[in-house]
Amino acid sequence: MLKIHVDMDKCQHYGQCVFDAPEVFALNDDDKLEYKATADDSERENVQRAVDICPMQAISFTE
Amino acid sequence: MSRPVVVVGASMGGLRVAETLRKSGYLGPLVVVGDEPHAPYNRPPLSKEVLASDVSHDAVAFALAEILDDVEWKTGSAAVAADLEAQTVTLADGTTLDFEALVIATGLRPRRLDFDNKPAKGIHAIRTLDDAIALRNELVPGAKVVIYGAGFIGCEAAATATKLGASVTVVGKGPVPMLRPLGLELATDIQRRQEAHGVRFVMNAQLTGVLGDERVTGVTLDTGESLPCDVLIESLGSLPNTEFLAGNDIDIESGVHVNASLHALRANGEAWPNVFAVGDVARFPIPKFDPSTRRVEHWNIPTEMARKVGKQLALQLSGDADAHAAEHAKAFDPVPSFWSDQFEVSLLAYGLLDQGTEVRLLEGEPGGDCIYGYFDGDDMVGVCGIGMRSKVMAYRNKVGRTA
Questions:
Q1: What does the pLDDT read at residue B34?
Q2: Please, what sign has the CA dihedral across residues B290, B291, B294, B300?
Q3: What is the mean pLDDT of residues B234-260?
Q4: pLDDT band for position B325 (50/70/90)?
Q5: Does the pLDDT of residue B45 top 90, yes or no?
Q6: Average pLDDT rounded to a whole number, residues B16-26
Q7: Which residue in chain A is spatially nearest to B17 when comparing CA positions?
Q8: ∠A51-B178-B301 over CA atoms, to 5°?
Q9: Which residues pair with B171 in a beta bridge?
Q10: How many helices (H) and strands (E) in chain B?
């Protein structure tokens, strides 16, 4: 199980993470980031790609 | 010992190449060379957060994964020469590195004004962390700031400096700011919004001189006007860092020319089997948008190129010919993406807007939140929104040429 954390002080809601891990990250109708605090291990590569692509480097996760 | 993979450039592109090589199973020697003294750091905050607050390298440094523990970092030492036939790179400190494969990720540097007698103080560019920190110390309330160059960096700096209490004038060569990347409709709209916040634009103008002895006191324009200022920011676009490759049979006209597999090319178009380029410095075809070649200075490009080169090169060095051939055959064909924040304006775009010959309003209203489509015939080659981010994102998979 992955535990996902987004530093919402850093997050600017650019939504770059959404394309790499759509099962975990989404922008809501107000264009604000929403994400699941946990994800299945099978999402590991996608979440790592989202971590890498975040322009504000706001995403982290633990296993 | 076998020769290392040498990555020249220790910013995001170089870092992601190193990570992907390791993740893809390359465990051999790996050297990353960087001209800046800092470990890899994130540049988007430079024109915003770093200018606006007391941010240090720690706050913008990229996390270094454990898999990079045995990478040899040579930061603060620019590559000054290379011999691609002999497979060597020479650094500013005189070191010569042999390489098994070379990845060029040297990026860009700002184009600077070339005037005689330019004052030493008060004139800035924004590319590196040290640039941004030096500028931050001068953006004080009441400062008179002239920004020369009305592209994204210039317009973002205008918004940041205004918010810090400076009085800002942007001077640009074209009729409206950001004309080439955005087109007339959106560019005009954003200029109006910037002006509503007090930013002054002097367009269709060029600097003819910089005033001041030790410190800048003003600039003169070809319109006959002169503008007093305490700070001059040059945001005139960028030049590719390719000088160290001079003297080799490699096409470095306006960036390192690479093919769809990201191999650097000889003057005759033949690929170097063990030399690659990634990121801002690379000039490449994007079949989905622009089959000719161009450099693309957008956020997602270095990472996407690094993922391809890292995986492909790891397979090449592993000797697994079939797996390498399969990866090699996948043409690099990304969807470019950029965003920009200027006051309350948040822009988000996909595709290559300048490939459009016709701009259509898709959603919303000009002056408010809105989305424009950029069309070449029936093909939507770009989309750009002000606000409405989640709706803009829904267009990402709809942009691109159909044939």
A1: 97
A2: positive
A3: 97
A4: very high
A5: no
A6: 97
A7: A52
A8: 30
A9: B148, B202
A10: 10, 27
Q: How many whole angstroms separate alpha carbon B387 and alpha carbon B248?
A: 47
Considering only CB atoms, B393 lies closest to which of A15, A29, A53, namely A15
ipTM > 0.95 for the complex:
no
Residue B391 near residue B369 (C-beta atoms within 8 A):
no
Phi and psi torsions of B181, nearest 5°: -75, -25
Instruction: Tell me what percent of chain A is helix, strand and coil, each rounded to the nearest 5.
Output: 30, 25, 45
Cβ pair B84, B272 in contact under 8 A: yes
Chain segment B337-393, per-residue pLDDT in tens: 999 999 999 999 999 999 999 999 999 998 899 999 999 999 999 999 999 999 999
Which residue ranges make up each domain of chain A? 2-62
Taking residues B42-70, report their average pLDDT: 89
CA distance B385 to B376: 18
How far B307 CA lies from chain A's nearest CA (Å)? 10
Amino acid in the structure at residue B205: A
Question: In angstroms, rounded to a whole number, what is the distance separating the alpha carbons of residues B128 and B29?
Answer: 28
Q: What is the pLDDT of residue B49?
A: 80
Please give the residue of chain B at the shortest CA–CA distance from A29. B390
Q: What angle do CA B129, B131, B137 make, to 5 degrees?
A: 105
User: Which chain A residues are within 8 Å of B303, Cβ to Cβ?
Assistant: 52-53
Closest CB to A19 among B303, B389, B396: B396
* A11 near B CB under 8 A: no
How far apart, in whole angstroms, are the C-alpha atoms of residue B367 and residue B74?
Answer: 49
Angle ∠(B160,B168,B226) on CA atoms, nearest 5: 155
Six-digit token pair at B5?
A: 């993979």
% of chain B residues with pLDDT over 70: 100
At B1 the pLDDT is 60
Tokens of A3: 């535990």
The pLDDT of residue B135 is 95
Element (H or E) spanning B15, and its range? helix B12-23
Please name the CATH architecture into which domain A2-62 falls.
2-Layer Sandwich (3.30)
Q: Convert B128-165 to b/e letters by CB count within 10 Å (16 or more is b).
A: bbebbbebbebbeeebbbbbbbbbbbbbbbbbbbbebe
Q: How close B210 comes to chain A (CA, Å)?
A: 35
DSSP letters of B277-296? E-GGGEEEEETTTEEEEE--
C-alpha span between B104 and B272 (Å, rounded): 12
From the list B91, B48, B106, B110, the residue with the least C-alpha distance to B281 is: B106
